[in-house]
Amino acid sequence: MTSIRMTLAGVSSIAGVKSNDTLGSWFKRMLGALGLPLLGLAVFLFIWQAGAKQIDTSLGQFPGPTQVYEQSVALYAEHMSERERETAFYERQEQRNAERVAKDPNYVPKIRDYTGKPTFFDQIGTSLVTVLAGFAIAALIAIPLGICIGLNASLYAALNPIIQLFKPVSPLAWLPLVTMVVSAAYVTDDPMFAKSFLTSLFTVALCCLWPTLINTAVGVSAVSQDLQNVSKVLRLSWMTHVVKIVLPSSVPMIFTGLRLSLGIAWMVLIAAEMLAQNPGLGKFVWDEFQNGSSDSLGRIMVAVLVIGLIGFLLDRIMLLLQRRVSWDKNAITR
């Protein structure tokens, strides 16, 4: 009986140790996942608030976290107010058209578009649509071309000088050329897209395709020789070889290029919108700078934080997509 009690006590003590170890390891994981990032954020906010008080500009004191929060609330309120005006505008049209049709059944109602000033959130949507469209065009060009270059050494030797020539060109240099080409080539009485949208789109595509192109070519050229020998033994066609052998092996490098390209696309777009005064977040920042009101610095800082947050989220989305399609989970970076 005594031995049984000793055995039970030993088992209980071991279970207690394991439970404590599990609780301790869980606490350490939570501290690393949440505690340290929150600590870093708190230190950043403290330094920001302390530094902002020491900076005086021509438009007033540099905005701290409190002022930025207040302006973000004000921007949201402006957005909701503008949406209410838009709703009232369409309701008035529908009412007038209903009265007109009641008097004249042959009357064909017309709905005019609301032409109010775009809000901060409207500008965010415009920039996101533009950057994703430009990035998609760049990817559709860069990935197939990168595969061809990676599989053909002669083609790589022929195109490499051109790639290295245009890769470092600034978007500020491309923008005037793209603007002139779009204005000359896109002439129509009923345009499907605004010229400002196309100008920003093609500028983004021209500047962000190079990382994807280069990384795809490198990934394809680095496919294991053993896998290539298997393809030869099975006598796979060129397309089957690409789909079954090349693409799965080069997915990590392709997505590395895509993530770099998306980050570059987002930076290029903001600069292009600011310089060309095309609709979007870049134009919002420039308009607030030109406005010169006491709230302008706070609004610009809100835009800066939103630009950074959107860039971070876009990168995380690409990382999640990479984890979904990549077979080599160890090759995925943070």
TrEMBL record:
- Please identify the protein, giving its name as recorded: Nitrate/nitrite transport system permease protein
Decide whether keyword Transmembrane is in the record.
yes
Species of provenance: Marinobacterium mangrovicola
Q: Give the membrane topology.
A: Multi-pass membrane protein
Q: Would you identify the family this protein belongs to, as annotated?
A: Belongs to the binding-protein-dependent transport system permease family.
Q: Which GO terms describe its biological process?
A: transmembrane transport
- Domain ABC transmembrane type-1, by residue range, is 124-318
This protein's GO CC annotations: plasma membrane
The record lists the membrane-crossing segments as 29-48, 128-159, 171-188, 200-224, 296-314
Q: Which UniProt keywords apply?
A: Cell membrane, Membrane, Transmembrane, Transmembrane helix, Transport
Q: What is its main location?
A: membrane
Tell me where it resides: Cell membrane
Please give the superkingdom of this protein's source: Bacteria
